[in-house]
Structure to design on (910 residues):
């Protein structure tokens, strides 16, 4: 068991009170698993991903435990997490490709990062070059400044840097959302390749785009308004989703070949609740077509079939 | 809670703003009410020369026997007039030119930019000396106008940059597609989005104008009539108040200018913290 | 109804505008009555520039755009207003489309001030309510609120309702659903389809091929400012002719079929000659001629055009 998260609760402090961004998240990611983390904007998927690596204010750790390879991660302690970051858990934030220091050559940038952790650039260089080659970047990019590279090239560069120390867990946050479809595909294939070659053990791939997850994920975890809704192997979640939200979400995706004149898709009426003061119970209940009295209690996230977890009273 | 009341909340919590406002309020009151308690004409020779503060002359008298208190409160008034008028003119010119250059772009921008640069490098003092040579009678208003007309360039530059970033926003396109004219778009779409910015520009111009006026007065290029804090300083230094130990002549105007300008700048920092969510403290 | 003829847009950048950047190059196409045309392209393909030129927000460097036979850049004064009465646009970022310091319904007030100053308050309110209901919003829920109090989907519908207040004939929809969540984007998309039934034409600008397919009658594929393929949506999707379109079709993430395991061709730094085909650097089937000349759009089957020497 590579990653195990138990009852993780993360809030945000705002002027008006606490935003209940992640509520009682319990799940695990196997060795070698690419887990897609999906949901609408504001559902807490990015918060969940970031909290495992970089718990910065106004994010607040409320409770919960995180184990990676049997070792507990002190995610509430920014300083102690330093020795785990990059080495053991690594993150590619959404706009990472635009966040590289523009005044340093990329090679220097990497050398600095390594030096901070007492590692030698020379030592790592042969492996670095091998990996650049793998993502079709020539080693001369190390002598370039970040702005000299195109968006797609920078994204590949960031991916190589963040996996350079072979972390156990890689968190990729919306890394494909600003890219064109052709580059998107290439980046996704790299994620799979990195896993296959053992550069990273487990991956959490955060995206709002379900169709990308169908292409690359082994399992998919769906979140809604801060709560875990469903987790299942990828084929299962697309073919036989159990939670009404997942079902409606997948039904709303246009397939290539679907046309409005022949097959009219439907969205989900209504909008998610405010997380500042969320109603008790299942947070989807206002939009749910099959909600009943029991839904005012929070449904547990239980395994209904091997590897298939659902939080819905109708399915238990 | 709307965004407006949120701003007020942060404004109230901001210590810098409160301190700055407090100081400013004290001096404003002094300028407004103070003269009613002054029993003497500020420039009349009314008392014994070089007399220290007493019950009759609250802040003492000058070498010529003028009442320092009376000069001080009247001087404060003219200081605020210069600040409001000079700062106001500087702000209005800067905003209009900045908005126009930023919104229209192209050759309009190039010409206005050139104009701005010319004013920027103009040797203000030299020009003023020339003007002083022609205008034998100069009042506080003339001084304010001059300050306003020479201090706008940096404001124009800042506003221009802001406008550049706002005019490509979609809501401006939407207004154009609603058939709005250029002037209306600048005034009703772009300017309101810079309110916080404009406010800060005004505060800085206000402080700058006071400081400029004090400098001009101090080197003898100020108004030929009336009183001002800068003129008081000028006279005090001219007649060796420092060497004669007449601190009461020197300190009130000097401290007041420092405090007012300082308060304005502290307020500016405070406002920056309020308007910029990244600097807000929770 | 709307016709673009050899429209080219060159931006001048750098100091003194010495560097030139060709965003759109000799683009010609038409939009007919009651037609949804999907303009498909990746970022930087010039698709938004085309939309902005149709909306008169940018002026083409050369070429003409005609609406009902009239050159839209020859219009002035009242005629411009009349044009905006019939042609309107909705943009990608719903939050940027609203002036953040005003209430969202100010966009309606603007329309009233400029187009309907004589309408009484009651008449106007009724008109607004009708438009809001037509886009599937419940007026009391959404009126009198600030933009940040509404969802992205609601804001986009608001903008469409704004267009409906006018006698609109053509709507330019520039990536209007790319920032919406999956659960609401289909509804906005369906709304566009319903508007077509009401007699509107729509230019649907998108980078998302499945969404383009779902809604459009005709598809135009752009690459680096040039049309590489154009035709009835079903034909373009079922039988893509240009290698670029082919590559796009193969890269779309589908939910019914996994990607073929063929390596994607990355962008190489090979730049085509100034006169060569724009796709030359990435094209798997390029021949020597492609580096010398840009192929013309050729009609291969009824209404289906492609700009490729190898495929026409």
């Amino acid at each position: 068991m590579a990653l195990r998260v138990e009852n993780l609760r993360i809030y945000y402090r705002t002027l008006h009170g606490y935003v209940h961004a992640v509520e009682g998240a319990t799940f695990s990611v196997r060795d070698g698993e690419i887990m897609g983390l999906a949901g609408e904007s504001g559902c807490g998927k990015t918060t969940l991903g970031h909290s495992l690596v970089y718990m910065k204010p106004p994010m607040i750790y409320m409770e919960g435990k995180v184990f990676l390879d049997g070792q507990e991660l002190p995610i509430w302690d920014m300083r102690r997490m330093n020795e785990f970051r990059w080495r053991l858990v690594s993150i590619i934030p959404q706009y990472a490709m635009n966040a590289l220091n523009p005044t340093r050559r990329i090679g220097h940038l990497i050398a600095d990062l390594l030096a901070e952790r007492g590692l030698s650039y020379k030592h790592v260089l042969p492996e670095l070059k091998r990996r650049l080659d793998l993502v079709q970047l020539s080693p001369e990019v190390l002598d370039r400044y970040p702005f000299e590279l195109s968006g797609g090239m920078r994204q590949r560069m960031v991916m190589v840097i963040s996996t350079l120390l072979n972390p156990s867990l890689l968190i990729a946050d919306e890394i494909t959302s600003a890219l064109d479809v052709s580059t998107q595909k290439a980046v996704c294939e790299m994620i799979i390749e990195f896993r296959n070659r053992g550069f990273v053990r487990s991956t959490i791939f955060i995206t709002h785009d379900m169709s990308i997850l169908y292409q690359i994920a082994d399992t998919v975890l769906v979140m809604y308004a801060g709560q875990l809704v469903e987790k299942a192997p990828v084929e299962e979640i697309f073919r036989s989703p159990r939670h009404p939200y997942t079902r409606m979400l997948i039904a709303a995706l246009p397939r290539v070949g679907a046309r409005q004149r022949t097959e009219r898709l439907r969205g989900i009426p209504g909008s998610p609740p405010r997380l500042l003061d969320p109603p008790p119970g299942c947070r989807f209940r206002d939009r749910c077509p099959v909600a009943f009295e029991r839904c005012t209690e929070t449904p547990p996230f239980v395994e209904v079939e091997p590897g298939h977890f659902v939080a819905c009273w109708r399915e238990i | 809670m709307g965004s407006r009341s949120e701003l007020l909340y942060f404004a109230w919590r901001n210590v810098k703003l409160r301190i700055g406002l407090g100081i400013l309020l004290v001096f404003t009151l002094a300028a407004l009410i103070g003269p009613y308690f002054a029993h003497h004409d500020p420039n009349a020779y009314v008392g014994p020369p070089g007399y220290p503060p007493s019950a009759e002359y609250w802040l003492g008298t000058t070498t010529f026997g003028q009442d320092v208190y009376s000069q001080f409160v009247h001087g404060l008034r003219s200081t605020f007039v210069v600040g409001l008028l000079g700062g106001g003119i500087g702000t209005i010119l800067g905003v209009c030119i900045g908005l126009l250059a930023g919104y229209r772009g192209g050759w309009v921008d190039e010409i206005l930019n050139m104009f701005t640069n010319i004013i920027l490098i103009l040797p203000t003092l030299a020009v003023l000396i020339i003007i002083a040579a022609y205008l034998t009678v100069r009042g506080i208003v003339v001084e304010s106008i001059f300050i306003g007309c020479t201090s706008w360039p940096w404001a124009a530059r800042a506003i221009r940059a802001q406008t550049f970033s706002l005019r490509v926003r979609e809501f401006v396109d939407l207004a154009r597609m609603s058939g709005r004219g250029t002037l209306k778009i600048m005034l009703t779409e772009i300017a309101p989005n810079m309110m916080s910015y404009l406010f800060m520009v005004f505060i800085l111009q206000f402080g700058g104008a006071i400081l400029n006026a004090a400098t001009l007065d101090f080197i003898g290029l100020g108004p030929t009539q009336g009183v001002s804090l800068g003129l008081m300083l000028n006279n005090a230094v001219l007649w060796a108040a420092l060497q004669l130990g007449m601190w009461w002549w020197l300190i009130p105007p000097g401290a007041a200018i420092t405090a007012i300008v300082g308060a304005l700048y502290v307020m500016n920092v405070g406002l920056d913290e309020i308007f910029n969510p990244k600097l807000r403290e929770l | 109804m709307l016709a673009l003829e050899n429209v080219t847009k060159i931006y001048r950048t750098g100091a003194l505008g010495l560097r030139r950047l060709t965003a759109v190059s000799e683009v010609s196409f038409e939009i007919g009555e009651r037609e949804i045309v999907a303009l498909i392209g990746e970022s930087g393909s010039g698709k938004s520039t085309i939309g902005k030129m149709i909306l008169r927000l940018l002026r083409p460097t050369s070429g003409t755009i005609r609406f009902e036979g009239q050159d839209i850049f020859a219009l002035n004064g009242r005629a411009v207003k009349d044009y905006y009465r019939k042609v309107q646009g909705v943009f990608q970022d719903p939050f940027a489309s609203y002036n953040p310091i005003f209430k969202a319904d100010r966009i309606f007030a603007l329309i009233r001030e400029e187009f309907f100053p004589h309408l009484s308050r009651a008449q106007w309110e009724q008109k607004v309510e009708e438009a809001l209901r037509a886009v599937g919003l419940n007026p009391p829920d959404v009126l009198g609120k600030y933009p940040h109090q509404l969802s992205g989907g609601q804001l986009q519908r608001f903008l469409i309702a704004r267009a409906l207040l006018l006698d609109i004939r053509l709507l330019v929809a520039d990536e209007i659903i790319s920032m919406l969540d999956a659960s609401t984007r289909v509804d906005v998309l369906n709304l566009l389809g319903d508007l077509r039934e009401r007699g509107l034409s729509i230019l649907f600008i998108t980078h998302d091929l499945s969404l383009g397919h779902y809604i459009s009658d005709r598809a135009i594929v752009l690459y680096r400012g040039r049309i590489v393929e154009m035709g009835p949506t079903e034909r373009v999707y079922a039988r893509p002719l240009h290698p670029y379109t082919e590559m796009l079709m193969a890269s779309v993430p589908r939910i019914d079929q996994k990607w073929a395991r063929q390596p994607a061709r990355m962008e190489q730094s090979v730049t085509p000659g100034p006169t060569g085909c724009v796709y030359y650097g990435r094209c798997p089937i390029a021949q020597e001629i492609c580096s010398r000349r840009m192929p013309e759009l050729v009609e291969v089957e009824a209404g289906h055009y492609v700009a490729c020497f190898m495929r026409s």
In short: The mean pLDDT of chain A is 90.
